Amino acid sequence: MTRPTIATVGELRASGHLQKTLRVEIRDNLLAALREGRDPWPGLHGFETTVIPQLERALIAGHDIVLLGERGQGKTRLLRTMSGLLDEWSPVIEGSELGEHPYEPIVTGSQRRAAELGDDLPVAWRSRDERYFEKLATPDTSVADLIGDVDPMKVAEGRSLGDPETIHFGLIPRSHRGIVAINELPDLAERIQVAMLNVMEERDIQIRGYVLRLPLDVLVMASANPEDYTNRGRIITPLKDRFGAEIRTHYPTELDDEVAVIRQEAELVASVPDYLVEILARFTRALRASSAVDQRSGVSARFAIAGAETIAAAALHRATRQGEDAAVARPVDLETAVDVLGGKIEFESGEEGREDEILDHLLRTATAETVRAHFRGLDFTPLVDAVERGIMITTGEQVTARDFLTGLPVLGESELYDQICDRLGAGSGAEVNDGQRAGAIELALEGLYLSRKISKESGGGETIYG
């Protein structure tokens, strides 16, 4: 839909435009989406039966909302999808500092212009994205940033301190008729949180000793880590009481949702097969269940996302150095991810010195689970027999897919290699390349090692199965 061409309040009235409060607008658009079967929450996975129903009920009720959850649970993404519930275009008084509706000017300057110009009051149009405002709460955030302060330049022009037009408004008043999202709310100093109390309930702006009553139409949303995790601050009780809904977020409960999040968020520079993403998802879930990991800090979804990006980078690095036509990640690249991701995990104090051991163990567990899920029922006897006859199979982060495939033992009439590749979607076909086939067979070899059917030695950038 293109930007409307209506340019004055007179034209706006003639068009039959009706003014809605922000909460009614959001409620109507949400209910319309639900009636039509449209998903109002694109890109969110694993919240369908838990967080989303609670959020929708809170919005229908018209409540301000705080989202509580550990890091990397999608709180910010959820906040940013809120703009999709606003009208695509909304009229404002042109040049208005607060974006007031042309039918309802609320600051002195806009009221004066409306009285002077009447139906000729100029109208501008704001898109829904321009009505969503976001602020990362930091300890140095001031009352002036959020609420406002006296503008010394306006005072210097000759206005008195008691003149409402001397005020430079902060983020929340400027979000009038829009959504303001405050990330990491407990990081705000308590005195700054106090300044928000009247804005959220009585809609007063209190600055420098005088009160300016403005009928602000703002939906306040916030995110926070649970108080038992963050030591940086807390949400003061009176402010928490002013949020109509407190909703707990969570990590994906289903493996498919975990995989979907990685696929959606990771920016990959090379091809990463689905089974490798699955291993990373299982690895992340194992870390969240491990007693060796500090679960109060959580294991962010960004851990697995960064892991996928790292193994893609390893594949591109190998392809560039070795002259491969296609950059495809293989199981051997998983070790490169663990090397750089360990710092993203907070371990329990008693596990000091065992961090690498824990990560390696859980990665092996995740790999074994993936192998069982995809290769159940396959008979690997021909490959095991070939290795037991003394054949060594070499791979590594700088061994090309072609070299790896060339070094595989001949299995006679067995079609085991084709069966392995078929199970992982790397069977015959024009789109299948050496990297995909090599990765599939490499996973099978790792599965045989983890089930103690063959041995493995690693070192110097090479891995030898024998």
UniProtKB/TrEMBL annotation:
GO MF: protein kinase activity
Domain of life: Bacteria
Transmembrane segments: none
InterPro entries referenced in this protein's UniProt entry, alphabetically: P-loop_NTPase
SUPFAM superfamilies, per the entry: P-loop containing nucleoside triphosphate hydrolases
Record's protein name: Magnesium chelatase
Organism in which the protein naturally occurs: Subtercola boreus
